[in-house]
Amino acid sequence: MTASSKRTKKQAILExxxxxxxxxxxxxxxxATIAREAGVATGTLFHHFPSKEQLLxxxxxxxxxxxxxxxxASVSSRGDLKQDAEQLWFAAxxxxxxxxxxxxxxxxxSMSPTVEQSVRxxxxxxxxxxxxxxxxxxxxxxxxxxxxxxxMQDNCHGQYLAATxxxxxxxERWQQAHERSASFALFWNAMAVR
Length: 194
Fold this sequence. Notes:
The protein is mainly α. It has helices at about 5-25, 30-40, 40-50, 50-75, 80-100, 100-110, 115-125, 130-140, 150-170, 170-175, 175-190.
């Protein structure tokens, strides 16, 4: 078996698990169903992922990394914190609208006890650590309130989930500039010094 076919099987398992975890839930999805739908043997699934929990964790971290890479790639720092934050915000929302299945996965599992706290911490502090750095810069410059960094990160995450749920549920509102602008204003005003 070539490295390419191993990767293809692993990717097929991840893609199938994503679809099934969103449509049937983690507990409603068996490893046998994932393997069958992915077109691989159950043993192949366990070769790549020793448990269903590890499959979920790897999928969670992989989607978070894809998200982080996409939003960072679409932002060119202008040296103005508010403009940089606005670019990140809209890049994140655009990613969500372009990736509805992955966003649905975020909605279900970002705050779920099904995903271990250590894995959620790895995503927030490792993969999305650049957000904490922006918050620190904003606090140092006096633009952002002096709240605990982790609380601010969780608040940013919660606002992102709320805004994406709003726009996914009402896609016609995503097309309206004033609605998009309002979503950023709510986000920024929750953190900015007044």
